[in-house]
């Protein structure tokens, strides 16, 4: 499945495929470009199949409903919605166009990298573990970004040896996605990635 979200400030492409032999994907995502901000959430339900999808879908639904809120509130809502579910690793990423900055919070092994045209990479470190509705500490970081920056966020189903050179050496979101095609064929897990460029 491929989904594209675009406006004058952001162009993002999401790709998702379930684990070989499974009917549903245990990953879920939500992304939305408004006139003021771009919001993106990626969740990887523990395990695979329907129960994993139940957890990850709850994340994308709660972020879709409350996407206007700040990231620290959203990650807390994500934790609460997983009470009595299997649990999920979760990342929430929100871009403020006017301030030209983004806020990021993550629990678990979802990876995020942003590459700036000046050559700088930003790789916020997540909190270890996963969300399950239990009391949880979060870390929310805000970073400035340059016009033309490219980013990628992906679940652990995508194994990339050189994510930084991928963002640095390919000019467009579509080129990056085309380059990733060979890696999506080797899947032994649910796989989701979102690549984007900020204008």
TrEMBL record:
Q: What Gene Ontology molecular function terms does this protein carry? A: hydrolase activity
Q: What are the residue boundaries of the PPM-type phosphatase domain, all occurrences included?
A: 9-198
What Pfam families does the entry give? SpoIIE
Which keywords are on file for this protein?
A: Hydrolase
Q: Spell out the SUPFAM superfamilies in the cross-references.
A: PP2C-like (SSF81606)
Question: Entry's PROSITE patterns?
Answer: PPM_2
Provide the E.C. number(s) assigned to this enzyme: 3.1.3.-
Q: What is this protein called?
A: PP2C family serine/threonine-protein phosphatase
Q: Which organism is it from?
A: Metabacillus herbersteinensis
